[in-house]
Amino acid sequence: MVNTSKKSERVPSAKMNSRVERSRHNVLTTAFELLSEGGVNGFTVDEVARRSGVAKTTIYRHWPTREALVIDACTRMIAEQETPDTGSLEGDITAILTEIAHLLPTANWSFVLPSIVDTAERNPEFAEIHSRIQRGHAAPLREALQRAIERGELSAHTDVSTIVAALMGPLFYRRWFSREPIDDQFVKAIIKRVLASL
Amino acid sequence: MVNTSKKSERVPSAKMNSRVERSRHNVLTTAFELLSEGGVNGFTVDEVARRSGVAKTTIYRHWPTREALVIDACTRMIAEQETPDTGSLEGDITAILTEIAHLLPTANWSFVLPSIVDTAERNPEFAEIHSRIQRGHAAPLREALQRAIERGELSAHTDVSTIVAALMGPLFYRRWFSREPIDDQFVKAIIKRVLASL
DNA sequence: ATGATACGATACGGTATCGTAGCGTTGTAT
DNA sequence: ATACAACGCTACGATACCGTATCGTATCAT
Question: DNA-binding region spans which residues (chains A, B) (predicted)?
């Protein structure tokens, strides 16, 4: 399936691709970095060219427009989080939220997300990306809750969306609105509250 | 105290101020509008001048720089919310959150806030404004909780900050992250959960 | 070797925006 | 009436950015 040029196919070929891929990779890496520092609005193609060493011309040979590059970089920022399986709902939730709590102050995406949220407020393309990122973050929780329902640990009528909001909301709130620290004690307090009410 | 020019004081005077104030008011009104539409980044002095009818020159006679104007506009956006006093904690919380739930999808500040959050991530001046807005939003809740503690309805050791996050977080989460509707049923479910765990 | 493909460097046109200068006009005070 | 303060208009200079054009160079396939 890799089409290793048998006839006179003067096309892709592994080595050619590797050259292309190196450029794309360098550009995207720098794009990440720049996004983390300045958000969507602080992102300029010229700066990416300067930092990455890849000529602006080359960048425009791979991405038709600035926005396409930004979107590409944002898309690849979506963290695919693992869903743990500890056997109990409380165990799963604790593992998931603790992980997120540790990522919130450090992960690159946490610096870019406000920018995406802001842009998404008025730009459908970014609204779509934001939606995907969002689903990615909520997926492990939803899965854990779904499993708990299947195990009979939760009622089949449980409103999963509400619980997700009740669990994720407080963490996000602290990261971007109240800007208070998110320690394990806080995470436990939130989990305890939500579980107690099920 | 109003200095109505008695001698040869060719200065302030009421009418002069009214002319100045009219300009300032027109500019700020337009600035609000523009902020709501395009966020901090979509905000340009030229556009304010165009829409408000106030010459750009005049704008710069009142605000030294674009940023000063944006900050001024943001500052005045801080909604001073009333703290209801229904007598019971549940009543107060319900009133407060219901109000916020109704404002979140409609109020001007809800369209600008992501932009401020984003800017605040890298700009100390906006971090300060964001902090003030934040405190303003949380104040009624904190007050209601404080009163409940004084009434003995809550333990004196109650962690108010955690409860605020548990209540506000889910609402904010739905507005800017999951983008799900925030109906009264949802608000009640959140309140019920939190109150049940006190 | 030779042609094709990707890349780099430079320059450019076009646009948007900030902030200022010059100068005439309108409103206000005495 | 006259002086003064605030305003409006137009035009700038300066800068930053987008996206393209041009041309020469390096890498790869055959």
Answer: 44-63
From the candidate CATH numbers 1.10.357.10, 1.10.1040.10, 2.40.128.90, 3.40.50.1100, the one assigned to the domain spanning B14-75: 1.10.357.10
Which run of H or of E encompasses B156?
A: none
* A190 contacts chain B (CB < 8 A): yes
Count of C-beta atoms within a 10 Å radius of residue A17:
12
Contacts of B118 in chain A (CB under 8 A): 39, 41, 114-115, 117-118
CATH level 3 topology of A89-196: Tetracycline Repressor; domain 2 (1.10.357)
Over its length of 198 residues, how does chain A's per-residue pLDDT go in tens digits? 333 333 334 455 666 678 899 999 999 999 999 999 999 999 999 999 999 999 999 999 999 999 999 999 999 888 788 999 999 999 999 999 999 999 999 999 999 999 999 999 999 999 999 999 999 999 999 999 999 999 999 999 999 999 999 999 999 999 999 999 999 999 999 999 999 988
Nearest to B168 by CA among B66, B109, B93, B114: B93
Distance CA B74, CA B127 (A): 12
Q: What is the rounded distance in angstroms from the CA atom of residue B196 to the CA atom of residue B190?
A: 10
